[in-house]
Structure formats: structure tokens, C-alpha cells
Specification:
Length: 344
């Protein structure tokens, strides 16, 4: 089956009431961990790469990493998704490089910083949908800006976050607008703003109803029962991974993520794609720090990269199990992959 449009996986997830983690990749070790975990628990896979990842690894290496995953695990359906495309051109280059799904993040302007107008968002998202759908590629849009409802700061952890202080109106997806947006653009999946942000410092304490608006997901799903909802910034920042980093010389203080049980509530109410990057970043960094500390004379990179893969694999397996997609890999129905075979 190999490379499939993301829509196929999300439709299957909706029909069977589960969610799929979308893990970010930049390198070989991350993709190995994701695929080994999926193979162990028999899960479908969504791999995503940001603009940063594309420039870090380079298009050719990224493309061949994915080809490697497809060739090594031909029985696992894999969607390859562009994370946070900042403008239509970025989405088109991803499609030319074989991505089977793209995110047109029109919640921000093409500088990936300034909050965009609703009209701009509709226009660029609609344009990408028209091109992508003609090629069998899926599209995720975003309505509302990621950021903290505690501090009103837009997301500032990476190179695609709303800059400065934003109003709650901007930090929360408006349900009326969401209905119109989906209707106007024809997106396959909708990323929503409910108080999550990227990185390890999402909240200053365990989030509750005011700071993590799961009620909004419930409302959005009622209004848009046929739209696949996406939760960004959904790493859980487990204390044991933070401790692994800190016990080995790191300094991550006051980091709180999205509790897994909140994500499970979301999955009961239409969340089908759950973006997770930070948890694997913590896992890889913690494991490498620990391995280097354990044997200071060892300079074989495999000495620290093997435990790094193992630690990320544990994270991936846990999320596959918790989100209900374990056991579903072999059940996704076959579709033609002609478009993607041709691309490669
Ligand atoms: O969107 C957030 C992901 O963690 C990707 O981050 O842009 O630093 O690669 P990045
Ligand atoms: P985290 O930083 O919570 O892992 O979120 C990742 C994400 O949303 C990628 O788009
Ligand atoms: Zn994101």
C-alpha cells in the first residue's frame, strides 16, 4: 500500500473512532523510530516535515528517507504531510517532492508570523485545495492562531508562530467562521486553535478548562461532524522525559504539555490527527545526554543514537496505543497510488 493520501487515513480513523499521531521528522533516527513503533503495534503512519525540516535535511534526503520507510515497511500505509506550509508555493514544492498531503497554514501571513485576515486565509487555502485535489493530495487548513490563553502570547517556539500578544478572539477558532471556512475552502482537515502552542512550555501548570478549551472541540465537531479536526501543539511533555533531560545536565523548567486524556477526549469528538514533535525531541535529547554521560570515553555515534531511537520508539508506541490506532494499520482499504508512484 505504501504512500497514501492523508485523507484516506483520516476517513478510516473517523469510521473507526480513533486518532492518528502525526510525528515530525528531520532525520533518519526519527523515521526509524516512528516506523519501528508502527510496525510493532500495526498502526497507520502520518509523517510530517516542516519547512525547517526540509531545509535541514534537503529535499532529496527527505524524499529518500520516506522512500526508505515505504520500501522497508510495504504493509504499512504512510501519509507524508507538509507541516505548516506558509504559502501556496511551499505547498506546491512539497507536492512536487512527493508529499501526499499539505498544510496550508493561512492563519498567518507568508512571513509565518503576522496573523492573517480571514479573507486571506480563505483565498490561499482554497487555491491550494484546488491544485492539491486535482493531484489526489490532501489539504489541512488552520483557523485561529496557536498560542497561550494564559499569557495571550502567540506561539513563539519555532519559525512559524503568531508574533506578540494576541486577543482571545484570535487565539480561539470561531465556530461560525469554521463552518464557513470549511464550506468555502473544501479542506480535508481543519487545525483548530484551543489554547495549545508548540514546544515544551505550553502551560505554566496542568491545563484546565480555561486554558485548554476542549469544549470548543466538542462544539466544532457538533457543527462540522464530517470535518477531520487536527490538534497542533499536542505533545504531552511527560515528566519522565523532562527528568531524563534534566538528570543529565539539561535545564527544562516549568514545562507542561497537553495531557493524553484530554487528547483522548478530543478523539471522541472528531479529532483525527494529533501533532506530536516535542515529545520525540525530549526523548532523543534525554537519551543522548544519558548515553554520553554513561560512557564518556565512547565516541561511536551509534552508542548514543541507538538509545535515542529506542526512547523515541517508546513515545511513538505509547501514542499509537493511546490514540486507538494500534491494530488499524492492516485494516486501511487499498486505493490506487498511481499519482504517488508517478511522483517518485
Ligand atoms: O510545528 C512545529 C513542529 O514542531 C516543527 O517545528 O519548524 O522547528 O521544524 P520546526
Ligand atoms: P508539539 O510541539 O506539541 O510537539 O507540536 C507539534 C506540532 O504541532 C507540529 O505541527
Ligand atoms: Zn503545528
Amino acid at each position: 500500500m505504501a504512500l497514501v493520501p492523508m485523507r484516506l487515513l483520516l476517513d478510516h480513523a473517523a469510521e473507526n473512532d480513533f486518532g492518528i499521531p502525526a510525528f515530525n521528522i528531520n532525520n533518519l533516527e526519527q523515521i526509524i523510530a516512528i516506523m519501528q513503533a508502527a510496525d510493532t503495534v500495526n498502526s497507520p503512519v502520518i509523517i510530517q516535515a516542516s519547512r525547517g525540516a526540509r531545509s535541514y535535511a534537503g529535499e532529496a534526503f527527505l524524499r529518500h528517507l520516506i522512500l526508505g520507510a515505504v520500501e522497508s515497511y510495504p504493509h504499512i500505509p504512510i501519509a507524508m504531510h507538509l507541516d505548516h506550509g506558509n504559502e501556496p508555493a511551499t505547498c506546491y514544492t512539497a507536492m512536487r517532492n512527493g508529499f501526499t498531503s499539505v498544510m496550508m497554514d493561512g492563519s498567518l501571513e507568508s512571513d509565518a508570523k503576522s496573523p492573517a485576515s480571514y479573507e486571506y486565509n480563505c483565498t490561499v487555502t482554497r487555491e491550494v485545495v484546488e491544485v492539491a485535489h486535482s493531484m489526489g493530495v490532501s489539504v489541512e487548513g488552520e483557523l485561529g492562531c496557536l498560542g497561550s490563553l494564559e499569557t495571550s502570547q502567540g506561539d513563539k517556539d519555532n519559525d512559524h508562530g503568531g508574533e506578540g500578544v494576541l486577543s482571545h478572539g484570535m487565539l480561539l477558532t470561531d465556530p461560525d467562521q469554521a463552518e464557513e471556512f470549511v464550506d468555502k475552502t473544501g479542506v480535508d482537515a481543519l487545525a483548530v486553535a484551543i489554547g495549545t502552542s508548540h514546544g515544551a512550555y505550553k502551560f505554566t501548570k496542568k491545563p484546565e478548562g480555561e486554558t485548554l478549551r476542549m469544549d470548543l472541540i466538542i462544539e466544532l465537531h457538533k457543527r462540522l461532524p464530517n470535518t477531520h479536526i487536527v490538534m497542533h501543539g499536542s505533545s504531552s511533555v511527560p515528566a519522565e522525559l523532562v527528568n531524563l533531560v534534566n538528570d543529565n545536565g539539561g535545564e527544562i523548567v516549568n514545562a507542561f504539555g497537553v495531557p493524553v486524556e484530554e487528547i483522548q477526549l478530543g478523539i471522541k469528538h472528531g479529532v483525527r490527527k494529533v501533532n506530536v514533535d516535542t515529545d520525540n525531541r525530549l526523548a532523543v535529547t534525554g537519551a543522548i545526554r544519558a548515553a554520553l554521560n554513561d560512557d564518556k570515553g565512547n565516541f561511536d555515534p551509534r552508542h548514543y543514537l541507538k538509545p535515542a531511537i529506542a526512547e523515541m520508539r517508546r513515545v511513538c508506541e505509547a501514542r499509537y496505543e493511546a490514540f486507538g490506532c494500534a491494530g488499524q494499520g492492516g485494516k486501511v482499504k487499498q486505493v490506487s497510488t498511481t499519482v504517488f508512484a508517478a511522483t517518485y
